[in-house]
AraC family transcriptional regulator (Aliisedimentitalea scapharcae), 277 residues
Amino acid sequence: MTTSYEDRVLRVLAYIHDNPAGDLSLDNLADVAAMSRFHWHRVFRVLTGETCAQAVRRLRLHRAASWLVTGDRPVDRIARDVGYPNLKSFARAFAEAYGASPTAFRKAGRATLANPTLKIGDYPMHPVSLRNEPARRLIGLPHTGAYMEIGKSFEAFGAMCESRQLWPHMGPAAAVYYDNPECVAEAELRSFAGGEYRGEGIPQGLEERRLEGGKTAVLTYKGPYSGISGAYQSLYGNWLPTSGEEPADAPCFEIYMNNPRDTAPEDLVTEICMPLK
């Protein structure tokens, strides 16, 4: 695929992320791509592994899942804000994807988030192990802003890997989170979306980051990405205070063990890695 096709896919993915309640029909996305709808669908499918309709549905519902857990807006408003015409159609689509109604998902998700009244040991439990992590060389795209919106950079990264045939040189997908969202304004949060790279050089348009490796605490979280915030509370609130370990002066990073495009949200597996001294 030529760079112009890659640019069109990146433009459309960004448009979907920025306009979840907008007109995301095939015709309109073809217009955003400046390409005939008869060919655009095939180009998008080749470069992303999904049809336009599949991508729109997944990204809208992911945004909804995050809002359900982290915000207070009513469910019917969330339905409108992610482009569903009514609460019934949204609830049906959400339950099919996440295995629970939006209301039940919100209740369960909030139970895993930080609560100032919780004490050590009261946070939800997740398995944590110690291991010697290898040094990793990552390539990807920087992201600034809410961590829950890093998916926008991941979508672009995946499309670039596909168009440039980088997947044979890639290891697992990974992200690095440089700031504490409790101390840094959401708009200023810094992160990096990409994956382990085993090729030569740095592909054009992508950036490199290196993880030193070494002694690492690894929490294994299974479930939708919207619940990862609660898993961090478990790592810091349950495991760390009683572990006898001390974090190194290095950011946490995440390794993604499967792909949200072909894995149900409840079956997603994420390794949250805390470098240790």
